[in-house]
Amino acid sequence: MPAIFNEQNREAVRIRMLENGAELLKKYGVKRMTVADIARASGLAKGTFYTFFSSKEEFIYQIILYKREMVRKIFTDLAGDCRRIRRDQLLEFFRRIQREDLNIYRYMTEQDMNYLATKWPREYSFNPAADEETTRWMLSCMEGLRQGINWKVLANLMKTLALLDMTKDVLHEDALEETRGVLRKGLLDYLFGCNGEIDKGAAI
User: Fold this and answer.
1) Which of 88, 103, 109, 143 could bridge across to 84 with cysteines, CB 3.0–4.6 Å?
2) Is the pLDDT of residue 202 over 60?
3) With left for phi above 0 and alpha for psi between -120 and 50, is residue 195 left, alpha or beta?
4) Which of 22-36, 37-51, 140-154, 189-203 has the lowest average pLDDT?
5) What is the rounded (10 degree) CA torsion for 157, 164, 125, 90?
């Protein structure tokens, strides 16, 4: 008989599964992580997994959304009640994402993403409407922005930062942190104008 959950318990179990799934994804990667692993780590029967998620691939997408919501909360907290983020606060935002290990893409490979793209609906991999809504919302929370910002450029820069680790096998890994700093500075300069030195990640 399948487990029965009330609404509160169901959400708690769902979050536990997502948290455990994120750790398993870091440990095993997309291909080696199994539904049995996820259920076992969450103290559930394997069949119970499917009362929450239709497949492992759908589950991975839900992990991404879960981590994305945590990132959004960090941004909102930094903005505060006045909803105005400055250059230094935005830099801290990017550092916190890395420090708190919220970028799940760093544990995936390009092959993983190609595989998931064959299993996911197109909008899971690329959703221009969602990109625009999120990016314009972020811009509305910033102050001191220069004129003429293209939200698509900002979206591309943020995705480039998020996906950097995915391609580390073909990059010079000993220069990865400095590369990340160059990209962050480029993003900040694009939004606020040129200022300061390259952030080499020393504070991370």
Assistant:
1) 143
2) no
3) beta
4) 189-203
5) -40
Angle (CA) 202 164 140, round 5°: 80
Of the candidates 79, 78, 75, 62, the one whose C-alpha atom is nearest the C-alpha of residue 18 is: 62
- pLDDT tens string 137-195: 999 999 999 999 999 999 999 999 999 988 888 999 999 999 999 999 999 999 999 86
| Prediction pTM value | 0.88
Residues in the chain: 204
Residue with tokens 């300069």: 189
Quickly tell me which residue has 């580390």 as its tokens.
168
Q: H helices within 42-150, ranges in order?
A: 46-49, 56-79, 87-99, 110-119, 122-125, 128-140
H/E stretch holding 183 reads helix 176-192
d(CA 10, CA 177): 40
